[in-house]
Amino acid sequence: MLSPISQPPRFISQENWNALTSETPSSFASIPPIIRHQQENVTITFSPDWEGYGEQGLKGTLFVTEEALSFLPTASTSGFTLPYPSITLHAISRDNAALGPCVYCQLDESVQPDAGAALPVVERENDGHYHPEDDEEADTPMREMRIFVGEESLEPIFLSLSHCASLHPSIFDAVDGMSDDEGIYADPSTFEPFTGEDGEELSAVGRAALAHLESILVWPVGQGPNAAAEDAVEDAEEEQVEESKEEESKPVVNGK
After folding, report:
1. Sheet order of strands, 3-5 included
2. What is the residue extent of each domain of the chain?
């Protein structure tokens, strides 16, 4: 959950970290976390609002360290630090015409249990299908955060967030007693994929995430999202070639 800060977080470069750990230190806890990305002229907004950031947000410096995501505004001291398990989703979005492209994040602001406390157990129907009512019962408070920055900085921030988040798996990953193996070897026949039928539509965030995934995926030949259109163009080109060959092979009569 969001915690206010009034000064930059502690951090260290990868090179300095390597130098400090080249010999066993007296305490690893005393070594600051590695910073993966630092970006100035970043604008942060929250929905619902947090600490007066408002719809226009505040501009300042973003710090992506391996410990947490932090931000310190240029014109005030109302910064924040955010642990990675609280970021349940992050994706590149280009839907905001006013402020430009951003890294969109969904934040889980539910109270985090103590490290020594037992994990909550939520009873769910164990039939392999997703049941929306299960999430409604949990009633988890959510907040949206948008990190507005220039186009050239979107990918570095997104990749840095992804790397650091992978170092901090959510403490709720083990809820429901599901082991890692059960998640890996789940039966795909029980999945209920999004099909767009019955008036279903992806949200703006879903479209942005899908567009980003499609831009970085390398599809096997004939299996991409535009495979049908590509096949149709290829067939049309082959037909034109065949027709040209047939015209050239026709006998010439009276010099015609």
Report:
1. 3-5, 79-82, 69-73, 58-65, 35-47, 142-148, 102-108, 87-93
2. 1-114+125-169, 203-243
- According to CATH, the topology of domain 1-114+125-169 is PH-domain like (2.30.29)
Give the model confidence (pLDDT) of 200-244 as tens digits: 666 666 676 666 666 655 556 566 666 666 677 677 778 777 777
Cα distances (angstroms) measured from residue 180 to each of 161, 186, 195 = 23, 10, 27
pTM of the model: 0.57
Query: Could you tell me how far CA 78 lies from the centroid of its own chain?
Result: 26
| Amino acid symbol at 204 | A
